[in-house]
Amino acid sequence: MPELIVALDLPDREKAVSMARQLRGVLDWCKVGLELFTLGGPRLLERLKEQGYRVFLDLKYYDIPHTVAQAVEAAAVLGVDMLTLHCQGGKRMCQAAVEARDGASDACSAPLLFGVTALTSFGTGEMPGITVHPGVFAQDLAAGAARWGLDGVVCSGHEVRDIKAASPGLRCLCPGIRPGGADAGDQRRTMTPAEAVQAGADYLVVGRPIIEAPSPAEAAAAIVEEMRAASVAPAAE
Ligand code: C5P
């Protein structure tokens, strides 16, 4: 069954730790992104690990190969379980990241490496310099990610079937997940949890529909239940 990851996109370290505590019985993964890592740094990751979470560090690395390799090594030392880098960093950057991860000492974690394709907030015509639909662009980048040895890609649920058909070993992590009726906000290429699971997603990342809900634990539990039901039910064509 695919796994649910909560995006702890909160403006305060203590709020994030307390949100994580509320959700601990419902899910195993939490995501720390730009805002929260800037506020909380490595100590915050440690506190989430102390709660038993698997930690996804979503800083979307994009830099020269040497710098990205060093950053991957640093994340491994911090015990990060999964991290993101941009596929647009290209072959040498992505391969340097894989080598750094594979070379991390036994004392470190070996984080899963996920390549960001086209952000789920991009609709048609919104990616600077890119004329094809973001979904087509995502598929091209995913093919590169598979060749360069990444474990998976970040993509919208709409792209999962084609990406998996071309690269069956690549895992797909999908943000832009909106339970029926939830506000899409800035996201464009959205899907419900059930649709994304039926498309073959391996991980779903959900932020606002959980953390802004009146009861985050109930909202997360409802998504897990929707995922469970979809993973045993045949997809409606
Ligand atoms: O609140 P919402 O469910 O839209 O949060 C989605 C999370 O996934 C955010 O933390 C965002 O940074 C992240 N993300 C994304 N699209 C990507 C990669 C990460 O929305 N391509």
Secondary-structure arrangement, i.e. CATH architecture:
Alpha-Beta Barrel
Mean pLDDT across residues: 94
Instruction: Characterize the largest beta sheet: strand count, sense, and whether it forms a barrel.
Output: 8 strands, parallel, barrel
Secondary structure: helix percent: 40-55%
Distinct bound molecules: cytidine-5'-monophosphate
Portion in beta strands: 15-25%
Structure annotation, total helices: 9
Q: How far is it from the N-terminal to the C-terminal residue, by CA?
A: 20 Å
Radius of gyration: 17 Å
Class of secondary structure makeup: alpha/beta
Q: SSE string, helix = H, strand = E? A: EHEHEHEHEHEHEHEHH
Inertia-based shape: globular
* Uncertain residue segments: none
> How many structural domains?
1
- CATH topology name: TIM Barrel
Strand order of the largest sheet: 1-2-3-4-5-6-7-8
Annotated CATH homologous superfamily: Aldolase class I
